[in-house]
């Protein structure tokens, strides 16, 4: 087969979701670089693929990457796979891809399963614009700070979360985004105990608190972006904004009113610039 680094998407649960092309490539390449060789072995054994597998993950030393580059230098073909889904989505494979590209080797994508896109597709939330955030910080304080930075984003937000943190994460989302912000919890996608539930964040938190089974497995959260209630500043909001601006910097006043009103901070700040208080 043609020499190059093949980035191969693999199933996130149901082994039947792998593509025919992915199976052909995994069987034909000279080397498979896998995030977890034990996990990948299950897939390869299921499809009776006997090939050389090299461990390549976040903590791999440079020798693993050197072996891949040596194979490519000799005109060989290498497949890069993650534990599940599309490689490089919330894993460190981009370093290998970048090195291969920098050395002039071809990098070929084989599209397929991705938990983030799968969850988004059944979320019932807007899909024309979305932001993949991956895993939020572990600690509540740092996590809440990051959520406050995302609070005004208008695109749909996608998060990955670990089962032992899902309750605390939802609690922080409720505290920062509000209990009424619409969201979807997708757990164990394509697996036996799959859960797909869309509800306001407050209801999702209660759902997880009331069912310990929802605190297990792989979890994706899809959260609606901020929906503007108006593109104009109504008179009451304008009066509050201008009153606050008498004692606070304009950007600070706009930020406070944005949090209270749901209007964009930029809209409010632009209003202040155009209508300075007397």
SSE pattern: EHEHEHEHEHEHEHEEHEHHH
Q: What kind of sheet is the major sheet?
A: 5 strands, parallel
In percent terms, what proportion of residues is strand?
15-25%
Radius of gyration (Å):
23 Å
Strand order of the largest sheet: 3-2-4-1-5
Extract low-pLDDT stretches. Answer: none
> Treating each run of at least 4 consecutive H or I residues as one helix, how many helices?
11
Cα distance spanning the termini: 74 Å
How many strand units? 10
- Assembly category: single chain
Task: Report the average pLDDT across residues.
Answer: 93
Described by the principal axes of the CA atoms, the overall outline is elongated
The percent range for helix content is 40-55%
Broad structural category:
alpha/beta
């Amino acid at each position: 087969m043609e020499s190059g680094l093949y980035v191969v998407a693999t199933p996130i649960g149901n082994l039947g979701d792998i593509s025919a092309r992915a199976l052909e490539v995994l069987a034909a390449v000279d080397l498979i670089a896998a995030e977890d060789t034990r996990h990948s072995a299950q897939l390869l054994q299921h499809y009776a693929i006997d090939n050389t597998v090299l461990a390549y993950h976040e903590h791999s030393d440079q020798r693993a990457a050197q072996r891949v580059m040596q194979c490519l230098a000799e005109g060989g073909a290498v497949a890069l796979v993650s534990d599940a889904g599309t490689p490089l989505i919330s894993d460190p494979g981009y370093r290998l891809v970048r090195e291969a590209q920098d050395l002039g080797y071809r990098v070929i994508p084989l599209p397929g399963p991705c938990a983030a896109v799968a969850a988004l597709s059944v979320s019932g939330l807007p899909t024309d614009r979305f932001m993949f955030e991956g895993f939020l910080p572990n600690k509540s304080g740092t996590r809440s700070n990051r959520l406050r930075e995302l609070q005004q984003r208008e695109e749909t937000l996608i998060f990955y979360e670990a089962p032992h943190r899902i309750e605390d994460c939802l609690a922080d989302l409720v505290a920062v985004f509000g209990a009424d912000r619409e969201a979807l919890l997708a757990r164990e996608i394509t697996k036996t105990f799959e859960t797909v539930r869309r509800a306001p964040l407050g209801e999702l938190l209660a759902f997880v608190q009331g069912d310990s089974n929802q605190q297990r497995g792989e979890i994706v959260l899809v959260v609606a972006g901020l929906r503007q209630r108006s593109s104009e500043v109504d008179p009451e909001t304008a009066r509050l904004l201008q009153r606050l601006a008498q004692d606070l910097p304009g950007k600070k006043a706009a930020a406070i009113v944005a949090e209270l009103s749901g209007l964009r901070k930029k809209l409010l700040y632009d209003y202040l610039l155009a209508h300075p208080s007397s």
